[in-house]
């Protein structure tokens, strides 16, 4: 087997055009999921029974099914639902042309990430002793202030390694967005592979690029962990 | 032009028998990958614990690489790359191989990497004294490993092994992308037979099957853990009862 090295070099360059799509898909999903996941975690811990139950079922469903099926379902469901809504409102918009599939991907990965993050937030919140909350309230902070200034900074430090894991898995997971015709790294690689039947070379390139992306993300998180964990070292 | 058609929940139930008849393919791929991947994981864990630095680094690099690889990329690499590799290395034509074999090779490579970390951590979690105690009562190192260390390590590894197995079962859903007719492959065939209709219903049916399956496997591992963990709870319980010790003390007063 002889690898076409010049093709690999060229393709590796073009693959980078997919990186902004992969990263923005990852970033948007995380940022959009975080508040909802936090709310779900609090609901699960302190909410009414039906709320906690609903969160548990949601998490069980998302974690108990392959993401590829979630993608296939939502990609057939979302455009039709949107189309029905738009037609009901009487708007002259063709949903199938007007909406970039990127946004369907954002919805899919956000819904998925909410479930995973809510579990991380839940265990992180459980790791903070209740004395921290009581201390915050006793010095006159409101419940919200206590959360913002006392509990969340500590919980975030606890949760950071797990969030790093979720981010890396999300970057890998977004490689399935090509099924929704999103032009991410995987999709660019797939096009390059099919063009000259250089499958092995193209996917080796894709493999290397994901290796780089994941490594950079993990280094970034370990720096962040160091920064967030400073208060621990000061206390010691 | 796409036509808006009413959602028909009855199709979900009607399609279940046809879909379930392909569940064995999905399960076979998952099971074969787990069994073979565990063997690879054992070898990798052994390499990671070995004294030879090169072996250790190689195993760690392999695990790291696999953890950064999207499963679909590996699946495509194996599916397109392996036949070329076989042709170049052995002049063998393996294009006729069943697609399940490519899927199994892919997922065993992934599972081996994930599970090697589980095995390594579990082995490291067994206290060193256990080995020393076993050897000091006259067991050979191999006997000590097999009868003392391995059962304990296996019990420690079990929850993570269950988690990894469930993850693999879900990853296995990708196999349809290389044309394997498994649960989802069959679902896509049904959708195609209906000219693209009933996609939502069929995918929902697949989701429900996977959800049920994953819950079943979870329950199975929880039961297994409870069953195998009996020895451990007994060991803890022995130190607890105070009455026995009192009784012993009472006995010893007799002797003196």
Description of the molecule:
The complex is a heterodimer of chains A (236) and B (256). With 236 residues, chain A is mostly helical. Chain A has a domain of 162 residues: MetI-like (MetI-like fold). Helix content of chain A is 83%, strand content 0%. In chain A, helix 6 packs across helix 8. Chain A is globular and about 70 Å long. The N and C termini of chain A lie far apart (58 Å). Chain B is built from eleven helices and no strands. Chain B has a domain of 158 residues: Orthogonal Bundle (MetI-like fold). Chain B is mainly α and 256 residues long. In chain B, helix 3 crosses helix 5, helix 6 packs antiparallel against helix 7 and helix 8 packs antiparallel against helix 9. The interface between A and B is large, with 40 and 37 residues.
Radius of gyration of chain B: 25 Å
The largest β sheet of chain B comes out as: none
Category from helices, strands and their pairing of chain B:
mainly alpha
What are the secondary-structure elements of chain A, in order, as H or E?
Answer: HHHHHHHHHHH
Q: What does the radius of gyration of chain A come to? A: 22 Å
User: Cα distance, first to last residue of chain A?
Assistant: 58 Å
Fold-level CATH name of the domain at 21-182 in chain A:
MetI-like fold
In CATH terms, what is the architecture of the domain at 21-182 in chain A? Orthogonal Bundle
* Average of per-residue pLDDT values of chain A: 89
CATH class of the domain at 21-182 in chain A: Mainly Alpha
